[in-house]
């Protein structure tokens, strides 16, 4: 039986009328993405056609999902909103605060011991405000959502960039910052710039060593990490229909790595099979009644160039397995080309670890295909040359995989079975020896491979591949191993080859679980007390940010000019810092410590214009704040790429940074800056980035005339007394300018509710 079936049936009861209205108002057939967007307008039926990439639109999402690391700040904000219950179905999932070290049981107990205060806080807040709570060990948020909450044609938002995983079940599911989620929890519309549309036509059929993961690894190579920014990617064609539902989820999940707003697939038989196998036949029956509205119109898929802003075509029958990396998820290499590329770039060919799991690839199908390779190694007398680790996606997947003997196969190869949690994917990995910072290579089935992401070692070269390729490479111990052509020598000195992987789309005996890990909230939580210890190092009640004084910001200094890639990992690291995600002041001690200073090419070393000395970024900024000196941050292209973590916006805001000026932003981070009352601006002339000098002073000349579609002028006063005046662009609309004026979007919500 599905969660929230009445809500889902209500969505389906309106979809025909709303899609018809949208078709009439736009005067054309519709893509699936357009059908879902137009059927979730805050104002109901469409009365105008929206311009892609231009119009800001208010939407009414069906549900919200939050993971524990981001839920802390989201719920701390919601507690200030003046509401007694969330307005839409919401869940919290405890998956980020569990470190992978020894193995599932011990690691989970350690997490319960060390993060009990946070888990208790999240459970009590959830209970008080009508939020479903998934306990530590229940599973990774996006796998749990796919198994329990995702439904074709729905719209959801989540406080994690990989919320997009639910596109595998035909949703428009979008990662957001916590402040966006708070809007929807409080019963307000959610604003999004109407996305552009990228169509990916899949022909042929996957076979052999090629997996759904290779589709998105190929797409990442085509689009790069920013090629999908501001767009929804919609997959269609016979190749899409021939793919499993969880395989579709894998592809949608990693759409975050090309900057896409989200990705999705039309409802088909594989989704129906998955719904029925996960005890949601009631959704499948309801979806079948409106299935023509849960996929793109036939005319769209027949002539995609007429309806999408960009079309990519991939023949799955010709697609090869890929390894993407290191240090960026869009550096795509077909398996047979790795030796040449690795040799040219001096990438270590010896592989130290193979890791399977994360929200991207931890389904039953993923484990079964990887287990088929592991079983071959056992049968053919092979040992794994690399160490091996497994993170099942949920307790339901883990329990079923254990029942069916899959985990036993991995354990026979001395694999460590970690907790059903994010683990190494989010930097929660106590990897032995990582502190030595030795140059090495690992391979994993995760989504991101930024420097220091998995183990904190900047010299770990991480490569992304499918679970079956991870297993094969881990067994061989070599990055350039090509299972399609290469032989291995077994314990008897015999040359053997690995056969193609096999697996199960769904468990032949069905899913099973004893305790899925879910706690339903009380119907009336008014009596529940949420206590935050004022002396806590982990949790801190929020103090509202100050409103803008209406004056131009003048006399500002440069905190840091970031050089090259500056992701949310660089701005607010994860790993051990996850413990402070509920304490804004403490976590602000990691603010921008990973960003490379353009002037000395060092991290966490910037010049203070108060003392003239170099010091850590947070310490320097705290000194500026204490002295009442406003500051700015300058960055390069795609600034804020990666996670949805709003801490990357809240920390600079808390420490007194007033503006972030870059060549271009990643979508979620730009929105997060706006929500927190920051100025997120872009150079009208990108070359003006080069004008910024280390000891400049900055004066905004016309901020008092801040308005939509109107550039801002910035005067740069150099140390020698010379000046440059440059123009800055922005994408603020009237509502977002009000957030800035009030000090934050939350301040405005509180004002409206009072």
Structure description:
The chain is α/β, with parallel strands linked by helices. The chain has 3 domains: 5-318, Aconitase, domain 3 (2-Layer Sandwich); 322-482, Aconitase, domain 3 (2-Layer Sandwich); 556-753, Alpha-Beta Barrel (Aconitase, domain 4), CATH 3.20.19. 31% of the residues lie in helices and 17% in strands. The protein contains 25 helices and 30 strands. The chain has a 7-stranded mixed barrel with strand order 22-25-26-27-30-29-28. A hairpin with a 5-residue loop joins β29 (712-717) and β30. α15 runs parallel beside α18. It is globular, with a radius of gyration of 25 Å. The model has no long low-confidence stretch (mean pLDDT 97).
């Amino acid at each position: 039986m599905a969660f929230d079936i009445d809500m889902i049936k209500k969505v389906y009861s309106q979809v025909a009328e709303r899609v018809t209205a949208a078709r009439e108002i736009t005067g054309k057939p519709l893509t699936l993405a357009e059908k879902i967007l137009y059927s979730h307008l805050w104002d109901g039926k469409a009365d105008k056609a929206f311009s892609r990439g231009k119009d800001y639109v208010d939407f009414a999402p069906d549900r919200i999902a939050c993971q524990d690391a981001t839920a802390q700040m989201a719920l701390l904000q919601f507690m200030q909103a003046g509401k007694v219950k969330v307005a839409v179905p919401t869940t919290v999932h405890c998956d980020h605060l569990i470190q992978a070290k020894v193995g599932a049981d011990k690691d989970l107990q350690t997490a319960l011991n060390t993060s009990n205060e946070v888990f208790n806080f999240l459970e009590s807040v959830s209970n008080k405000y009508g939020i479903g709570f998934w306990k530590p060990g229940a599973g990774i948020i996006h796998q749990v959502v796919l198994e329990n909450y995702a439904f074709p044609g729905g719209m959801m938002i989540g406080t994690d960039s990989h919320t997009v995983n639910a596109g595998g079940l035909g949703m428009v599911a979008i990662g957001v910052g916590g402040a966006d989620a708070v809007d929807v929890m409080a019963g307000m519309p959610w604003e999004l710039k109407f996305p552009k549309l990228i169509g990916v036509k899949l022909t042929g059929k996957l076979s052999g060593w090629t997996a759904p993961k290779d589709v998105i690894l190929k797409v990442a190579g085509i689009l790069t990490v920013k090629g999908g920014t501001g767009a929804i990617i919609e997959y269609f064609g016979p190749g899409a229909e021939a793919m499993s539902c969880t395989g579709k989820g894998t592809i949608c999940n990693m759409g975050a790595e090309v900057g896409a707003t989200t990705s999705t697939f039309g409802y088909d038989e594989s989704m129906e099979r998955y719904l029925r196998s996960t005890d949601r036949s009631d959704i499948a029956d309801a979806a079948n009644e409106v299935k023509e509205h849960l996929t793109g119109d036939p005319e769209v898929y027949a002539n995609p160039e007429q309806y999408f802003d960009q079309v990519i075509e991939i023949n799955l029958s010709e697609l090869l397995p890929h390894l993407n990396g290191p240090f960026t998820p869009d550096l795509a290499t077909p398996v047979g080309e790795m030796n040449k590329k690795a040799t040219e770039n001096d990438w270590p060919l010896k592989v130290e670890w193979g890791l399977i799991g994360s929200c991207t690839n931890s389904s039953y199908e993923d484990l079964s295909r990887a287990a088929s390779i592991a079983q071959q190694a056992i049968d053919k007398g092979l040992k794994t040359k690399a160490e091996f680790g497994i993170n099942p996606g949920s307790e339901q997947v883990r329990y079923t995989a254990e029942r069916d003997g899959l985990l036993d196969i991995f354990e026979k190869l001395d694999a460590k079975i970690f907790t059903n949690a994010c683990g190494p994917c989010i930097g929660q990995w106590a990897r032995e020896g990582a502190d030595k910072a030795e140059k090495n290579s690992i391979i994993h089935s995760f989504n991101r491979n930024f420097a220091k992401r998995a183990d904190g070692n900047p010299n770990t070269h991480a490569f992304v591949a499918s679970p079956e390729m991870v297993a094969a490479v881990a067994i061989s111990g070599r990055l350039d191993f090509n299972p399609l052509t290469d032989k291995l020598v077994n314990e008897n000195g015999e040359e053997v080859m690995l056969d193609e992987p096999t697996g199960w789309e769904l468990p032949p005996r069905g899913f099973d679980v004893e305790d899925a890990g879910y706690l339903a909230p009380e119907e009336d939580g008014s009596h529940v007390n949420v206590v935050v210890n004022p002396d806590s190092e982990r949790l801190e009640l929020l103090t509202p940010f100050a409103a803008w004084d209406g004056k131009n910001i003048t006399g500002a200094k440069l905190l840091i000019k970031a050089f090259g890639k500056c992701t949310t990992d660089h701005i607010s690291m994860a790993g051990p810092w996850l413990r402070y995600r509920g304490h804004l002041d403490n976590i602000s001690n990691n603010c921008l410590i990973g960003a490379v200073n353009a002037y000395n090419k060092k991290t966490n070393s910037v010049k203070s214009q108060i003392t003239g000395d170099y010091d850590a970024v947070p310490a320097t900024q705290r000194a500026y704040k204490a002295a009442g000196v406003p500051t700015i941050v300058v960055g390069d292209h795609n600034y804020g790429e990666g996670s949805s973590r709003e801490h990357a916006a809240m920390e600079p805001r808390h420490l007194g940074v007033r503006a972030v000026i870059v060549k271009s932003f990643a979508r979620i981070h730009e929105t997060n800056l706006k929500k927190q009352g920051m100025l997120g601006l872009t150079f009208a002339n990108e070359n003006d980035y080069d004008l910024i000098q280390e000891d400049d002073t900055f004066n905004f000349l016309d901020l008092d005339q801040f308005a939509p579609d109107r550039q801002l002028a910035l005067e740069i006063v150099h140390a020698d007394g010379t000046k440059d005046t440059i123009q800055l662009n922005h994408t603020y609309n009237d509502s977002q300018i009000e957030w800035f004026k009030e000090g934050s979007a939350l301040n405005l919500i509180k004002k409206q509710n009072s």
